[in-house]
Amino acid sequence: MAAADIQLLVNTVFYIAIFVSGFVISIPVGVVNINNGGNCFLYAKYDKEECVQYSGSLNCNFPIYFSVFACIFYGLAQTCYNAYAVYKSTKDPTVGSQMWVMPFILLNSLVAAVMTVVACMISVGFDNTCQSFEDITKKDSCALAENKHVRSACNGPEEEKDYDSGNFYKLFHVAEVAAWMCWLIWIALVISGIIRAVRNRRLRTGKADKANFAEADPTA
């Protein structure tokens, strides 16, 4: 039995990390939404210490749904695909050179680009909410806003509703770190794909050169 293809093995580990990251991003953002009655706490603005203007639902739904579909579902599919390829490579070392590469380079590049947007949305939205709280309350830490009674539509025509801010500071911080780590892994996968494409091209070129040499010199 031959040794497993190291690059395929590393890619499998990367996809497992992305699969896990999908949960670590989507669950914290979703929990904060639930604590606030389905309202988005990213980009929320404080009018008073207990009065919050929530932002549009897209600011939270986009990171959640993207993490579910691009990280969890796609990450799981790629984990299974690469894990099977690793298993096959122990019997056939040429498996890696036979796999499709360019479609996954393009797809992973697209996902990495959108992941940049998702990570920025979480980071900037989190920072805006915290900055709003600190400006209104003159407190030096957004963590002090955790587990506080909050109200929506304090000065608006809508009906006021009471919520609990919960552990939003910790949860958003976890989601933020996971999002940027996930982005780095997507970039690593794109680079890995490019390296694989270059290796495969050189391998095919080498085989073609050997074939041409054999035709030119029948005694070889």
Automatic annotation (TrEMBL):
The keyword Heme does not apply. It is a multi-pass membrane protein. Keywords: Membrane, Transmembrane, Transmembrane helix. InterPro entries: TMEM179, TMEM179-179B. Signal peptide: none annotated. It comes from Magallana gigas. It is found in: Membrane. This is Transmembrane protein. Its main location: membrane. It comes from the Eukaryota. Belongs to the TMEM179 family. The chain crosses the membrane at residues 12-34, 64-87, 99-124, 177-198. PANTHER family: TRANSMEMBRANE PROTEIN 179, TRANSMEMBRANE PROTEIN 179B-LIKE.
